Amino acid sequence: MPPPSDTHDVIVVGAGISGLTAAIALQARGFQVRVFDSRDTAGGLCGTHVIDGYEFTIACNDFGAAFEQAMGELGVDIAFHHPRSLLCTERATYSLPVRLASVRPFLPVGPDLLRFLRALRGIQRRGEPVFVADLLDRAVKGREFADFVATVCWAFGSPPRRFRADMFAALFARDLGYGYDHPVTPIGGTATLADRMARRLLDLGGHLDLGVTVTDISHGHGPKTISTDHGVHHTRHVVSSQRRLDRYPSDAEPGLSVATMHIATAPDTPFPEDVHTVMHVPAGLPGLLARLDAGELPTTFAFNVFPCDLPGERNYRSFNAYLMCPRGTDDLDSADRDHIQAYMFDRIDTMLPGFVPTIRYHRLVAPHEFQKLHGLSSTLAPAILPPGFTKPDNYEPEHDIYYVGNTVQPPCEHAGSALVSGLRVAEAIAVRDGSDARG
After folding, report:
1. How many CA atoms lie within 13 A of 271 on its CB side?
2. DSSP string, 349-386
3. Contact 316/264 with Cβ under 8 angstroms?
C-alpha cells in the first residue's frame, strides 16, 4: 500500500474488538479510516502470548452468536465453532445450550427456573431497581438453581447481591441480540480473529498503526488534530476506546479481577471434542462470591477450564483456567497459590478423568502479573453499575467525539457489547455524513 496521508475521514484510537469493528464498518462505507494502538498487536484482550515457551490465550475466548453474524456481514474471513459448555455442580453436570439429549439434569430445577423467569419479567415491567440476589430470595427455593444463576454473575466478577437484575436480563434481550444463549468460538482462536479483522480493514484500504501512542486530541466541532508519538494527523471524526469511568458515580467499584492458571499438557490429553468450557461450580456460589467481594479467599471457589484454540501443530496442548481473586488482591502468596493449585487440580481430575497426569507445565498468573505482561487489566467489568445509573452514550457532543467499548452503551460488559458499540458508532457517523454502505 502507498503510505497513508496525514488527513483522514475517521481516526480510531484503539484496535480492540470495538475499535476494529467501527473501523471496518466505516471503511466499508467509503470512509478513509486510520487506527492507532499503543500495543504491538491488534485485538486487545483477544490474542495469545508465549510464556516459558508455551503459547496461551490472553483472555477473550468465547462469544455470542451475534458475533458470527456480524463478522460475516463485515466480510471478515473467519469461521466459528458452535461448542457446548459443561457446568459441574455437586449434584449434576449441565450441558449448555440445552438440547433434547441433555435436558434431563435440568428437570429437577425446572420449577425454580420458571419462578425466576416470572420474577425477572415482573421487575422488568415494573422497572424495579433490584439485584439478582433479590430475585433468588423471592423466587428460588433450591440452592442448586441459585448456584446455576450465580455462574452468570461470576462471569462478570460480581456477587448476585450487586449484579443488577436488569443487566442480567439484558444479556439475553432480543433487541440487543448478543446471542449468548448460543455461544460460538472462532476457529483458530481469538488471535486469528483479531488478525483477520485487521486484515479485512487493510484489504478495504484502511490503515492500522501499531505501537503508536495518541498523546492529544483537539476538541470541538470541525476538523480535529490528533497528536501521536510518531507525528500529527488530521481528521473529521474521532472514535475513541478510552474508558469513560470519569462519567460514573465516584463510589462505583470495578468487578473482581481474574487470576489465570496456564496449563500445558501432552497433545493427546483427554478433553471433550465438542466442548469449549468446563466449569466447576461449588455449592453456595452466591455466598462465595460475596466473600470474594469482601476481600476473602474462600477455601472453595468456582473456576472454568478451556483449551486455547491455536493455529498450526504443536507438541503440546495449552489450556487456561480462570478464577476470581478477592477484591483488592493483585498478587497471591505462596500458601494461597499452593491451595489454589491443589484445589483446581483435584476438581479437574474429577471433571476430566485422565487430564491431570498429562500436565507438563502450569503457572498461575495473578492480576498484577497480567497487567505487567499485557498492559491490560484482568478486571472482568470496568465498574459494577449502581442502581439507576445508565452507561454514557457513545457520542459526546461537547467534544464531538464518539466512544466505543464496555464503559459506554450498550448495556453489559463483554465482547458482544463491545462489538455492538463499534457498530452503533459506525452507523451514527454514516448517518451524520449521509453516507450509505458500499459493500
Report:
1. 27
2. HHHSTTSGGGEEEEEEE-HHHHHHHHSS--BSSS-PPP
3. yes
Model pTM?
Answer: 0.93
pLDDT in tens, 311-363: 888 999 999 999 999 999 999 999 999 999 999 999 999 999 999 999 999 99
- Cα dihedral sign, 114-323-259-276: negative
| Residues 211-228: b if buried by 16+ CB within 10 A, e if exposed | ebebeebeeeeeebebeb
Q: By percentage, how much of the chain surpasses pLDDT 70? A: 98
What is the DSSP annotation of 143-212? HHHHHHHHHHHHTTT--TTTSBHHHHHHTT-TTT---TTS-BEETT-HHHHHHHHHHHHHHTT-EEEES-
Q: How many CB atoms lie within 10 A of CB 100?
A: 6
Q: Compute the CA torsion angle 420, 426, 428, 431 (nearest 10 deg).
A: -140
C-alpha to C-alpha distance for 416 and 393, rounded to whole angstroms: 17
- Please write the tens of the pLDDT for every residue from 263-278: 999 999 999 989 999 9
Answer yes or no: are the C-beta atoms of 249 and 386 closer than 8 Å: yes
The DSSP string of 91-139 is S-EEEES--GGG-GGGGGGHHHHHHHHHHHHHHHHHT---BHHHHHHHH
- Indicate the Cα dihedral angle 365, 147, 277, 65, nearest 10°: -120
Main-chain phi, psi angles of 4, to 5 degrees:
-70, 150
Residues 61 and 320: their CA atoms lie apart, in Å, by 10
Query: Which amino acid is it at 427?
Result: E
Task: Note the pLDDT tens digit of each residue in 277-291.
Answer: 999 999 999 999 999
Q: In the numeric block, which cell numbers belong to residue 296?
A: 476473602
Dig out the grid coordinates for 228 from the structure. 501521536
Distance CA 164, CA 431 (A): 33
Q: Give the number of other CB atoms < 10 A from CB of residue 121.
A: 11
Q: Are 24 and 74 in contact (CB under 8 A)?
A: yes
Show the cell assigned to 318. Answer: 495449552
- Cβ pair 23, 10 in contact under 8 A: yes
Say how far apart CA 112 and CA 212 lie, in whole Å. 52
pLDDT band at 60 (very low <50, low <70, confident <90, very high): confident
C-alpha span between 67 and 428 (Å, rounded): 20
Phi, psi (degrees; rounded to nearest 5) at 94: -105, 130
Is the pLDDT score of 438 beyond 50? no
